[in-house]
Structure formats: C-alpha cells, structure tokens
Amino acid sequence: MADRLVDNGFVTVESGSPSALVRLLGDWTIDNAVEIDNAMPSVVAACEAGAVVDCSAIGSLDTTGAVLIRRYCAAIEDAGAAVLTGVLAAHKTLLDVITCCPPAAATEPDHAPWYLLPLIQAGEATMMALRSSARLLGFLGLVLIRMFGALFDLGRIRLVPVVHQMEVVGLQSMGIVGLISFLIGAVMVNQGAIQLAKFGADIFVIDMLGIGHLRELGILLTAIIIAGRSGSAFTAQIGSMVLHEEVDAMKTLGMNPIDVLVLPRLVALTVCLPLLAFYADIVGIAGGALMAWMQLDITPANFLTYFREVISIDHYWVGIIKAPFFAAVIATTGCYHGLRVHGSADALGMRTTRSVVQSIFLVIVLDAMFAIFFTSVGL
C-alpha cells in the first residue's frame, strides 16, 4: 500500500517509484480556488522526482480550475516531470484551451510627455542629419578618389556624357539664371535708392549693387537655382535607373556607376557653374544699371565709369572662387541621393526632395564659411 503524503480533500499525493501519484479530487472551481492553491507548496515538496497527475476523480471543472491544474503541472515539472492522465472527455476541451499559449498581444507603447516631444524630435533629427552628413562625406571622398584616378587613366573620362551634361546644366540654365539675376539687380537698385535717398546718397547704390551682387548674391542665387533645377534632375535620373536595375546591370558588366553616372555630372557642373556665375554677374549689373537709369537718371556710361572706380576685381574673384565648391556640393549631393533610392517611386520622390533641401542648405552653410574666411584674410 502506497504511503499517502498529502491529503487535503482536493489533492492527495501517494508515494511511488519512480514518481509519486497526485490525485485531483472534488470540484476544481473558482469557489475552491484558494484552498486548492494553498495546498500547492506541500504537493510540490512531496513530488521530489516528478509525479503522475491523475484527473479522473475531478467532479466539476471551470476555467479557474483548469488554470490551477496547469499551475500544479508546471510547478511539479520544475521538480522533475509531470504526466497528466485520466482527463475526462468533458474536461479535455477546456484543458486543451488552457494549454494554448497565444502570442503576446501588441500593446500601445508608452508615449513621452508632450513637453518632451520637441526635444526628442530635435535630437532624432540631429542624429539623422549627422549620420547623413557622414555618409555624404564618405561618398564625396570616394568620388574624389575615382576622379583623381581618372586623371591617370584618361580612358575612363567619358567626353560625350560630359559635353551632354554641360549643355543640360549650363547652356539650358542660362534663361532662368539670367532672368533671376536681372530682376534681383534691378530690385536691389530700386530698394537701395529709396533708402539711400533719405540721406542724399543715391550714388552709393552702385557700391551696394557691385559688392553685394559680385561677392554674394550672384553666385549664391545661381547655385540655389542650379541645385533646384539640376541637382534634383541628377537624383531623379539616377534614382530611376536604380529602380529599373540599370545600375545593377552596369555593375554586372564591370562598369563603375561612379565613373559612368557621377563623374560626368560633377565635371560638367564644376566647369559650368563658374561660367554661369560670371554670366549672372553681368546680367545682374545690367539690370541694376537699367533701374538706376530709369529711377535715378544715372546714364549707363556714368554708371559704368563710377562702377569701375569703386569696385575692385577682388570682389569678383571672391564670388567666382566659391563656384567650383558649390558645384561639387550640388553634384555630389544629387548623385548620392540618386544612388540611395530603393523600394518604390515614393522613395524616389522623397530622395529628390531631400537632395534639393540638403544641397541648398550646404550651399548656404559653405557660403557663410567663405564669407567668414574672406573677411578674416582681408578680402
């Protein structure tokens, strides 16, 4: 006769070899849950090497009772092994349901307080901008390496694409660049004359136009126009080729996408942007001269005579020197975002927008750095 180790009316434990026998008795319902649960420690302690759990003597069973049975089995499993047996057909379905372990339901994540959201968003945007700048800088280094390598291997320089890009980014941009520069020059003289007239210094509007347009506005506006017109086109063209797997095809054929797609655009823009800046300076000064003739009665001859006396060539070179650097930033940013396109047309639109915004931002930052540098060296 086996020794009875535990007996509380709902659970009995009989010794056995190799496992003890746990009999579940009576009604395992929510009404008896406390008493059944209190007996668990003593039952588990008696089952040192596991047990066979016999459910054949259970009367009534509800969900709470089924949960308690599973808890008993889990606790005995920790001590050894638990084998569930004698489950009545009326109870089997309920125990099977309780046995299931559904995946954890997704819960709504905790939200930061509303007053911290601007700080969090600013921090995330800053980190994203830093990572993007680091990747762009690395891409620029890779492009420069390929460009210097092409100087020692002239066969890698593709003249036809370079000439084509010069026509697209240079010749076809002259209309919009000239119109904007002409209007800006005229507006500068118009507004400057109104303010300077209060002090009887109308003639100094020529100084303002020459210095402001030659040093800053001419090249800056030209670079912004080219960033919006050609930089976005670079991203859209290369991004479309990425989506159509044309870039992958180039790699399969042993062609480097930087040599084929990036260098012609970079070289063309580096050559054309200084020329466009020179053109913008001439047209902007012409617009200012026309407005001075109409508003201040300063003839074009007198305008040019005074202009030559007060404006030195240094102001012109300060603006022109910036042009190749602006061109490198615009071309590199446009091509970089084009090569980063992946997924769908939505990604192409997002990258094109980001290319234009980033190009204009970098051009303005670079212009500010040049302004500080030239001021510090006395130019």
Tags for this model:
5 strands; single chain; Transcription Regulator spoIIAA; 13 helices; elongated; 379 residues; five-stranded mixed beta sheet
Explain what this protein looks like in three dimensions.
With 379 residues, this protein is an alpha/beta fold. The chain folds into 2 domains: 4-99, STAS domain (Transcription Regulator spoIIAA); 139-376, no CATH class. Helices cover 70% and strands 8% of the residues. The chain has 13 helices and 5 strands. Strands 1-2-3-4-5 form a 5-stranded mixed β-sheet, covered by helices on one side.
Layout: helices, strands, pairs:
Layout: E1 4-7, E2 11-14, E3 20-28, H1 33-38, H2 40-46, E4 51-61, H3 63-79, E5 82-85, H4 89-99, H5 117-151, H6 159-169, H7 174-196, H8 205-243, H9 246-252, H10 257-295, H11 300-310, H12 313-339, H13 345-376
Parallel strand pairs: 3-4, 4-5
Antiparallel strand pairs: 1-2, 2-3
Helix pairs in contact: 2-3, 3-4, 5-10, 6-10, 7-8, 7-10, 8-10, 8-12, 8-13, 10-12, 12-13
